[in-house]
Amino acid sequence: MTTYRVCCFLRRFRPASNEPSEAIGDVFQAYAGADGALGEEALRRFLREVQGEAGDDDVEAAAREVMAFAAEHRLLKKGGGGLTVEGFHRWLCSDANAALHPRRGVHDDMGLPLSHYFIYTGHNSYLTGNQLSSGCSEVPIAKALRDGVRVIELDLWPNAAKDDVEVLHGRTWTSPVDLMKCLEAIKEHAFISSPYPVILTLEDHLTPHLQAKVAKMIKETFGDLLYLSESEAMPVFPSPEDLRGKIIISTKLPKEYLETKSSKEEAQNGSTEEESVWGDEIPDNKAQVATACQVSEKDSERYVEEDEEMEKKVQLGVNAEYKTLISISLTRRKHDMDQDLKVDPEKVSRMSLGEAAYEKATITHGSEIIKFTQRNLLRIFPKTTRITSSNYNPLMGWSYGAQMVAANMQGHGRKLWLTKGMFRANGGCGYVKKPDFLMNTDKMFDPRSKLPVKTRLKVTVYMGDGWRFDFRKTHFDKCSPPDFYARVGIAGVVADTMMKETKVIMDNWIPTWDHEFEFPLAVPELALLRVEVHESDNHQKDDFAGQTCLPVWELRSGIRSVRLYARDGEVLRSVKLLMRFEFS
């Protein structure tokens, strides 16, 4: 019995049991023989009929893996029999039976131009916390690269003496980090998780003298890893395969930063509220900045003086050596969408848009954005009012073909979970090939239109386990075992987006829901499966108990094991759900 103390009394509850749920038991019995075990032939039939394995070779290989797992963990019936119900359940819950194939690896065609891929993109990659007063460090850069991020952003500013370069979020109270530390971190961690190219975007506020210094640092640090374009104007981008193991520099000239209205200022206006289907954002456990602070009048005057001084220096010209490092040029915006989104048949480039400006453009120039991103790169970044490093819905960018939907990796919450979910696809290499309809030049895709249902995804949530190992007995409730429920839904185009939930299972560390949901999908190629578990609390806000997000187009059919992650995206060591996925 499990006991909880309430004042002077002890409350007793049944001990947690990890036996298979009734529904899983029924599946086993449907295939087990008279001896109560699952023989090899019955296992093959199960793999074919329930797990969706197609082809004799695939079925045979899967059966060998299951039997090897069972033999290794001593889960076979004595006397050379088949798989016991315990062994069957243990295998179903193992990582070998994960919802995404654990050994599939990179499988998209990586030989197409960069513009054909969604690219895992970070924003202000050097920040350790909020956008206003946190520290800057090379540590979050290294972590992002290890997690598979392929686009790193650095903001370059002169130091107080104007004789060296610092990395910091300009015109805030963030503390700087040395540029060399950032470059060394990029070199050391760039290709640990993925062999495909790292794009280094520089927001450059430097004079020609400091540009020359940066050029020397970049060349000496990266050496042969640095990709240098053979011509100033590329007619088409090279492919991720062509750029394997390379670091690419992308920026625009500092004079353009001064002449152009700050794109970050453009993003000041708020965007529309998300649909209620998303649910309230889960609060951070750490203290957050409560209100947006404004720069004092004295500081504002100082910044104006700095801009005037820098503009005079920039008139001297741009350092030639620095300019040769820029392989992907950032186009200067004309603040006229008709002009900004014109496609140049002779050369390709990159453009950046603030979240709010981009959202407006999708309403008036949706098809033009898709056409632009078929050849060129488009980067979307969060508005500056997101001072707590929150994020926006990335599907707003992906639905129109934007490759670089920049995310604050130091922030947490549902929108970042979607980004992490997208880039679990294609072996987690940081590049995911865009759906063919986003590259179709004959008929432009419209994610806002009423689209016919293409497929239906049936999801069954059987049970969950692992919280009893990863959390204290009183973590969720001081007086009893937790009351868990699951939320399951789809994030995608508007027509597909929805969220549903199971009933609450009271006082049980190993909840069994056996709950079935069905989701009609118009665009499964852009659909992400959202899964969250919460602990119901009648007296205060429900406790968070884990989450994951998975690309629907890569889900394996059948009964699968699904690992959950903490709010900050780190994997929970023991917590898993057992779920079933069926497409019709």
UniProtKB/TrEMBL annotation:
Compartment(s) where it occurs, according to its Swiss-Prot or TrEMBL record: Cell membrane
Residue ranges of every copy of the C2 domain listed in the record: 438-566
Keyword Cytoplasm part of the UniProt annotation: no
GO MF annotation: an example: phosphatidylinositol-4,5-bisphosphate phospholipase C activity
Membrane-spanning intervals of the chain: none
Any single GO CC term annotated in Swiss-Prot or TrEMBL for this entry: plasma membrane
Keywords: Cell membrane, Hydrolase, Lipid degradation, Lipid metabolism, Membrane, Transducer
The protein, known as: Phosphoinositide phospholipase C
Species the sequence originates in: Hordeum vulgare subsp. vulgare (Domesticated barley)
Taxonomic lineage from the root: Eukaryota, Viridiplantae, Streptophyta, Embryophyta, Tracheophyta
